[in-house]
Amino acid sequence: MPIIQSDPLTDVVVRILAAAGARADYADIVARHLVDANLSGHDSHGVIRAPHYVRAIKSGELKPTAVPEIVEETASMAQICGHWTFGQVIAKQATEIAIDKAGAQGVGLASMYHEGHTGRIGAYAEMGAEAGMASMIWDGCIGGPRSVVVPLNGTGRKLGANPIAMAFPSARHGTVLLDFATSISAAGKVMVAVDKGEQLPGDWIVDADWQPTSDPTKLKEGGALRPLGLPDVGHKGYALAMMVGLFSLMASLRSENQPPTEDRWGTVILMIDISRFGPVDVFQRQVDTVIDYVKTDPLEDEVLYPGEIEARNRRERLAQGIDLPAATWNEISACAAGLGVAVPAL
Length: 346
Prior knowledge:
The chain is α+β, with helices and mostly antiparallel strands. It has three domains: 1-64 and 308-346, Hypothetical Oxidoreductase Yiak, Chain: A, domain 1 (Orthogonal Bundle), CATH 1.10.1530.10; 66-184 and 237-306, Ribosomal Protein S8, Chain: A, domain 1 (2-Layer Sandwich); 185-225, Hypothetical oxidoreductase yiak, domain 3 (Wheat Germ Agglutinin (Isolectin 2), domain 1). 40% of the residues lie in helices and 17% in strands. It has helices at residues 6-19, 24-39, 50-59, 87-105, 122-130, 187-196, 234-251, 280-295, 308-320, 326-338; strands at 3-4, 69-73, 77-85, 107-115, 133-140, 164-168, 176-180, 205-206, 212-213, 224-225, 266-273, 322-323. Helix 1 packs antiparallel against helix 2 (24-39) and helix 4 runs parallel beside helix 5. The chain is globular and about 55 Å long.
């Protein structure tokens, strides 16, 4: 697989997005977000997405220069209409607003709608932890063209992958981060398997006849992702997906589109100022103590805390470079060539 360092990869994606019509600052925000997803080990939300964004710009689905608008605001909350620009741009602004409001009021909430793909939502939870906040984020939809998950015991693409994220800061161990789709996998991980020419580890998806399969190509051929927790507790993943979808429906309530057939993707970002409960540094040291306690006496290998793998991946990939499937790099290179953008030789 091609290996590329993060800085030249970021530069390539910036130039691709700018050549496709993105504002310079938007191209920088999105490129850094995508490459950071690769660094953290989530290639499903990394630069594999760049050609998809370019196609969305060309089709008019994604508005690369639109300015997000605050349509409702109080001391502790804000609602943002993204006017269909990059989800990463809107979510970064929404996270910063939620952090500022939490600092002033103790709790801050920002919601967003009419947004492009938001990327790895754990990145926004990490922003909160770095600011001394505890955070929760809900992101998704019920119905519409971005739904890709079949309901438990049902048929059809009825739900989004509907991820949820939470994060807390610590002193020595970095950010404690939960970030997962409520489907059995993110759709992007199926995309990565296709690019690698690999089968899925299990029957993560159903085909067009709603039969379980591990063939990742079946997702684009009319299939769907299955709920988290199958085969034993799929009802829990399905229920989580529904609840995240309802948070998202609330976030997009001002949308002129109506569920369930229209695109009503929405995001809710909640920040809580830990300092309102006591000194943040004391809390961070207590989190370290809890992590050390949980990691003692492993049965085999080691006990990991949520977010530890991402932190390790980031350190390793910053030093060694990012492995990209050849198919992913070829698609990026073809996209760049179509826009007159040069890519580095690997």
